[in-house]
Amino acid sequence: MVLATMQNTKGKPKVALWDGLLPVSVVPPAPTPGGWREVEADGKAMLDGEVYVAMNRFSVLPGMESGFEQRFASRESTLASRDGFQGFLLLRRDGAPDDGFTHSTLSVWRDKAAFEAWRGSEDRAGKPKPGGGGGAGGADGEGGPPKGPPQMFAKPPEPSFYEGILVLESARGI
Fold it and tell me: What is the per-residue burial (b if ≥16 Cβ within 10 Å, else e) of 124-142?
């Protein structure tokens, strides 16, 4: 689990609950005692980053949720084979969203360099292929869903990026 604010907020933070739909994970390294690493926190210096997190929030129109989720579930992914990839989740908002965002994606990487290497690669999902095809790229760790019918989204996806500073992992993944 990455302990960081996982919702873009303006002003006072709000609680947002999500259902994890499509977890993809690689086996994490052996945990440290108690699951946490030894941290030297003096209250002055910022903690070192442990992972890089890329997220994308989607505003899917009512009635289009199933189609949106199916597009993620049915496409091929090369994430698990990428150096530095640690996990991916497609999330569905639990309850009625007050900001219009119904779904989110979260991908966890060893560091920003590993994410950027994947993002610039030729084999990522959603990247246009030579001769046509492909789709809309994004910052969600899987390139965003393939370009689809414009009536599926109420507004463009919103990417956000985080440095995970305290990580707790289990043998089951993120």
Answer: bbbbeeeeeebbbbbbbbb
Cα–Cα distance for residue pair 160/138, rounded to 1 Å? 10
Instruction: Give the residue extent of every domain in the chain.
Output: 18-27+47-164
Residues 54 and 6: beta-carbon distance below 8 Å:
no
Amino acid identity at 128:
P
Best CA proximity match to 141, nearest among 67, 56, 71, 74: 56
Low-confidence ranges of the chain (pLDDT < 70): 1-39, 125-150, 174
Q: Tokens in use for 22?
A: 């499509």
pLDDT for the residue 75: 85
71 sits in which H/E element: helix 65-74
CATH of 18-27+47-164, one of 3.40.50.300, 3.20.20.140, 3.30.70.100, 3.40.630.30: 3.30.70.100
